[in-house]
UniProtKB/TrEMBL annotation, chain A:
It is found in: Cell membrane. The chain crosses the membrane at residues 7-23, 29-47, 59-80, 86-113. It comes from Peribacillus loiseleuriae. It comes from the Bacteria. It is a multi-pass membrane protein. GO terms for cellular component: plasma membrane. Keywords: Cell membrane, Membrane, Transmembrane, Transmembrane helix. This is Membrane protein. It holds the Pfam family LrgA.
């Protein structure tokens, strides 16, 4: 029974993905079809056009086996033996450095934004308070 | 071939559950084992993909499925909208621009640069973005894996060094740079860091698909 529910729900996700791809092809958008479908499903869920119950088991299942889905693509690395040479090393260094830089920048920036948002909220509450007292 | 993939994957997941070292991640070990099998039996990748493409075809719906966790955390997202969107936007821009510029500096070839531009997006989305830009899907995953594993390992040191103490700042940095790996690291900090990281991961994937082509065009990568 559970398998049937999950399969049917995956079919629903497939349909969304198909619609997304169709929109992508029709309008020649630079955004991938599956992302269009993600946004579409998110909107449908928020507007209650699609009840969460219709997709939740299927979605949770797919996300739980996500790693397995990449494997055929990662195996494709076997076609690039040059990765084991200096080129591969350079590639790794690039990604590592960029990750360090980006974590440092985004962590600091997010903390800064958070403080700003907090301050704005506090100010608002202060204003409310002062207008009440006045 | 599907059966082989699934069986090896299940075995490797068991192994990982037993010994949770980052280099034993099922995706790394399974890939290695399958490549060794294919090479030993002289099976070309093309033949393997006859079955393998069925597994890959589930990636589309899997990306769509990410709407579900995002929906579950919509209240959380709305509460911190300004902080999350701002932080993720900065992360996506700095991640893509820095990797592109560094790669150009080191003289890495054009297709490879395009493949690693989306390295800070979650894998299924990174594949699509890389292909859309003219890169290669396998290389894209390679970049994503390195960013994820290394990012999750190095992040605590960076946070200490840069004095990032807030759970929100840490969560956003982890989710929008080291995606799933970063999010599991975030779970070790606190519930708030974890939620922040998983929202940031999904949002970063969405924002990244819009930003990718713009950044490539702006910087002539």
């Amino acid at each position: 029974m559970k398998i049937i529910t999950i399969s049917l729900q995956i079919v629903i996700l497939y349909i969304f993905s198909f619609i997304g791809t169709a929109i992508h092809n029709f309008f020649h958008l630079a955004i991938p079809g599956s992302i269009i479908a993600l946004l579409l499903l998110f909107i449908c869920l928020c507007l209650k056009i699609v009840p969460v119950k219709f997709i939740e088991s299927g979605a949770a299942y797919l996300i739980s086996i996500l790693m397995l889905l990449f494997i055929p693509t990662t195996v494709g690395i076997m076609n690039y033996p040059s990765l084991l040479s200096i080129h591969g090393a350079l590639l790794v260094i690039t990604v590592l450095l960029s990750t360090i830089i980006s974590i440092a920048i985004s962590g600091t920036a997010s903390q800064f934004f958070e403080k700003k948002a907090q301050k704005r909220k506090d100010d608002k509450e202060c204003n409310k308070f002062s207008s009440h007292s006045a | 071939m599907i059966l082989l993939t699934v069986v090896v994957y299940l075995a490797m997941s068991k192994l990982y559950k037993r010994y949770a070292y980052p280099f034993l991640l099922p995706i790394l070990t399974t890939t290695t084992v399958i490549i060794i099998i294919l090479v030993m039996l002289h099976i070309p990748y093309k033949n393997y993909m006859v079955g393998g493409q069925w597994v890959t075809s589930l990636l589309g719906p899997a990306v769509v499925a990410l709407a579900y966790p995002l929906y579950k955390q919509r209240r959380f997202l709305m509460n911190y909208l300004f902080t999350i969107v701002g932080g993720v936007l900065i992360a996506a821009i700095s991640g893509m621009v820095s990797v592109g510029l560094l790669a150009k500096l080191l003289g890495i070839n054009h297709t490879l640069i395009l493949s690693i531009i989306p390295k800070s997006l979650t894998t299924p989305v990174a594949i699509e973005v890389a292909e859309g830009l003219g890169g290669n899907a396998s290389m894209a995953i390679f970049g994503v894996m390195i960013a994820g594993i290394f990012g999750a390992i190095i992040a605590p040191t960076i946070f200490k060094f840069m004095k990032v103490h807030s759970p929100i700042g840490r969560g956003i940095a982890l989710g929008s740079n080291a995606h799933a790996m970063g999010t599991s690291k975030a779970a070790e900090y606190s519930e708030l860091t974890f939620s922040m990281s998983s929202v940031a991961m999904t949002l970063c994937a969405i924002i990244g698909t819009f930003l990718g082509p713009i950044i490539v065009w702006l910087f002539h990568f």
